[in-house]
Design goal:
single chain
């Protein structure tokens, strides 16, 4: 889990515009970690988290497209029912509003990436990190003497 930059790219809703934008990132070998697109009749908003945000910013500046940046939480979740619900419940109990969220379909090792835009990103991070620390407390390892091992 970490805080990362999300880019909201505002595009004209016409054939080929998204292909051109995505093609620019592909040509420069900038990986997209997560993406969602919303549209209206005249405009589309592509929200994207890139593996290399500084390089992506330069490309967006060269494309001369309007965009904005915002800090979001990037979570590494189990790809199973209830994983995102558990996070939402923890944040809700602590009065952190989730403004919007989106997830990848799945990744290596049965994991998925969840992107959350929350009202208080630093506070949310501390709440969720506290839960991670509780889970990761190691238990003592008990080893049997060689003579009793089978």
């Amino acid at each position: 889990m970490h805080i990362t930059q999300q880019f909201s790219i505002f595009m004209i809703n016409k054939p080929g515009v998204m292909a051109k934008v995505l093609g620019e990132f592909a040509d420069k070998k900038i990986n997209i970690a997560a993406m969602t697109v919303m549209d209206s009749a005249e405009q589309a908003v592509m929200r994207v988290v890139f593996a290399a945000p500084d390089k992506a910013r330069k490309i967006l500046d060269n494309l001369n497209l309007p965009y904005s940046e915002t800090s979001v939480l990037s979570l590494n979740l189990n790809n199973e029912s209830g994983a995102l619900a558990t996070v939402a419940e923890k944040l809700g109990r602590n009065h952190i509003n989730i403004i919007y969220a989106y997830c990848t379909a799945g990744a290596r090792g049965g994991r998925t990436t969840g992107i959350l835009k929350v009202a208080h990103v630093d506070k949310a991070m501390k709440i969720l990190e506290g839960d991670e620390k509780k889970k990761s407390k190691s238990k003592p390892v008990v080893r049997k003497a060689k003579s009793t091992r089978r």
